[in-house]
User: What shape does this take?
Amino acid sequence: LRKNVEDFTGPRERSDLGFVTFDITADILNGKNDFIFDWNVKQLFLYLSAEYSTKNNALNQVVLWDKIMLRGDNPRLFLKDMKSKYFFFDDGNGLKGNRNVTLTLSWNVVPNAGILPLVTGSGHVSVPFPDTYETTKSY
Amino acid sequence: IGSSALMIWKGLMVVTGSESPIVVVLSGSMEPAFHRGDLLFLTNRIEDPIRVGEIVVFRIEGREIPIVHRVLKIHEKQNGDIKFLTKGDNNAVDDRGLYKRGQHWLEKKDVVGRARGFVPYIGIVTILMNDYPKFKYAVLFLLGLFVLVHRE
Assistant: This one.
């Protein structure tokens, strides 16, 4: 699992807004190291989430991007230059200068019937945010 | 059968910690994962932290109908106070428009439970009973017959 990111923070009066672009290369496997789709896996809900701590909040988690994969789709992801689907607002100004923002890819397995597990992929990427706000970049 | 069914139900409530350990999906806002009529099994243990990606069943203050959506954002304080935002998989936007006026976040108290497992279709019976009273009376009548016939 490999992700490359470029990021910056836009100035907002009240809360930091982060901008992240990323690549994802991943094989989604089950616990036995086989490709995940089997007779009882109807779909996967994949999501890329950012996790970090700030002065205001001990734990923040923000979903940046998600995708539904149905059985029959390719369980190998090869995405480039993706922009986040959802606005990455902090609850405050905790993104500026934050060196410890971690991106992780996780998925919810939806069976035809049965348990709904949440699985976190191995491999995560740290995204350090710069100390200054970006005013000129267009997104 | 009535009292053993009630005991199982109460037992489920205790084990899962939820007042409604089983709910029926009422809308298509979580398709293609869940459809109207699917049955969801919930737990609501206080120790289970609320994290993004989880499917929560919550109630908006003052409204009766519980909503089943996914957690999109959380901000949790050191002391465990948490505020979070939800969104239906099949909806284009997050749920802020559904919350109460002026309410921007959900809190632990709004949560009925977390979806841990599901069975498709079965709950359609309760939806049919709700939408078609004649069907409900027919089901109750048949249940009543069944109990009468099997009385020991």
In short: Chain A touches chain B at residues 42-43, 45, 47, 49, 56-63, 66, 68, 70, 86, 91, 106-108, 110-116, 118 (CB under 8 Å). The CA atoms of residues 51 and 61 of chain A lie 5 Å apart. Chain A has no helices and nine strands. The first strand of chain A starts at residue 2 and ends at 10.
